[in-house]
Amino acid sequence: MEDSRIGLPIGTALDRFIKRFQDDFPYATGELSQLLRDIALAGKVVNREVNKAGLINLSGSIGADNIQGEDQQKLDVLANIRFIRAFTKGGEACAIISEEDENIIDLHNNGKYIIAIDPLDGSSNIDVNVSIGTIFSIYRRLSPVGSPVTSEDVLQPGINQVAAGYLLYGSSTILVYTTGNGVNGFTYDPTLGEYFLSHQDMTIPDLGKIYSINEAGSLDFPDPVNRYLQYCRENEHTARYIGSLVADFHRNLLKGGIYIYPSSPKYPQGKLRLMYECNALSFVVEQAGGKASTGNARIMEIVPADVHQRCPLYIGSRSMVEKAESFHQ
Ligand code: P6P
After folding, report:
1. Same domain, yes or no, for 92 and 220?
2. pLDDT at residue 59 in the model
3. 110 lies in some domain
4. Where are the alpha helices (DSSP H) in the chain?
């Protein structure tokens, strides 16, 4: 079976890429492929709205907090609606876990897949034109198709993911995903309304010099974190922190680096969400040769107890994550 590490050239359209590698899975019946197309389509719509938010009064807050207690942005709500509508129409997903919804969205259909999604991460950056992103994770349901969705269906560890990835709405919009067979990136051409393969078989440098963390919290960081940061400062590292996880992650994926959001008194379990932020990016980074941990344990082996649970996140170049972990031992 040909894997995604060879085969289709740069410039291949996303649709052709998906079909090409679906054909390699004889048992594949096309639902996962269609799910990826649904995500790509919703991403086009969100991209359009993100790119003109200021012109159509879509910037700013709706004046209410979301279930996370965070000031909900108009585009958060819009993006959530777009992705849920795409999955509802597509019919491949039977349930959705969304950062914007307290409860699991049961679509009461014969879908085979569970989606965990952060429709628009980093939304506080929307008003200042900083890159933001969508993060998604896809699982196969464990209970029989057509039966009620169970808690076992939704509380699966990250190692059960069948696909995961992100959309980055930045200087250009890129869709990066894996189905467990390498990582590929597709840049969106809005003049053609299509994504084209631009980053083939992405691999993260094993070592980098970039560390991404909000150092303003250092007075409250666990001691091992501060000792690792001191190591970075003493070893010609450089700090880059956009405040938008997808943007920081993507830069580190390309250049090498580590992103850390540790536990703190304000966030005893860390700030980031296991199901729709940490697991998805962990699948991508592991497939690209990197590593993702809580500082002590592999992210993807955590068995969730709650769909919105948080966890500390150390993610990026393998040697850098292992170095940071060594300060915890
Ligand atoms: P802080 C955005 O709210 C987010 O979830 C990530 O995208 C980002 O990396 C992080 O939180 C920023 O958090 O506490 O540094 O502002």
Report:
1. no
2. 67
3. yes
4. 14-22, 31-51, 74-90, 151-154, 223-234, 245-255, 279-287, 318-326
